Amino acid sequence: MLRRRCDNNCLLAPYFPTQELHKFVGVHKVFGASNVIKMIQMVEERKREDAVKAMVYEATARLRDPVYGSAGSIYQLQKMIQELKAQLESMKTQVSELRQQKELLLSIHNNNVHSHNDPLFTDNDPIFDGYFDQLMDSDPFDFPVQVGWGCSNTNNMSMPSC
């Protein structure tokens, strides 16, 4: 795999610890060890860690997609953003249409209730004339109890006969 090991004095040691050898293998495969060392040396010391992270990211992307590398991932994400924006606009349109339908249905319902054209609204029906007023005026807990159910009871010990 690798010809030589990196000791503690190696420039790469702080950025590629032995427990993360797979990261260096990918970077080495894509860029080559000497190029990685040159790139690290070209960057200011305080920015080197970020530079190594970028190299690892690009190497991983290149191994996954040798033609486009990270640009392929960026393109796919941009395409996904455009598709999601289109879906969002479609959903906004649907919500707007549903709100309009709701308002229309509410206005129809309110017109029917206020004009008493509702076929289920029976306040003006002569059959029920005054019935609802009686219900509203009566006490729901005060109702007469009839005993005997209108049947004659000839024998006190037996059930009433009808």
Q: What is the topological layout?
A:
Elements: H1 21-31, H2 33-42, H3 48-64, H4 70-115, H5 131-137
Helix pairs in contact: 1-2, 1-3, 2-3
Family: Belongs to the LOB domain-containing protein family.
InterPro entries: LOB
Coiled coil: 74-108
Give a verbal description of the structure.
With 162 residues, the chain is mostly helical. It has two domains: 1-64, no CATH class; 84-136. The protein has five helices and no strands. It has helices at residues 21-31, 33-42, 48-64, 70-115, 131-137. Helix 1 crosses helix 2 and helix 1 packs across helix 3.
Main sheet record = none
| Distance N to C terminus | 106 Å
Strand content: under 5%
Uncertain residue segments: none
- Total helices: the number is 5
The domain count comes to: 2
Shape designation: rod-shaped
Helix content: 55-70%
- Derived from helix and strand composition plus strand pairing, the structural class reads mainly alpha
| Radius of gyration from CA coordinates | 43 Å
State the total count of DSSP E strands. 0
The average pLDDT value, as a whole number, equals 80
Order of helices and strands: HHHHH
Which tags fit this structure?
LOB domain-containing protein 11, LOB, 0% strand, 162 residues, rod-shaped, mainly alpha
Summary?
Helix content is 56%, strand content 0%. With 162 residues, the protein is mainly alpha-helical.
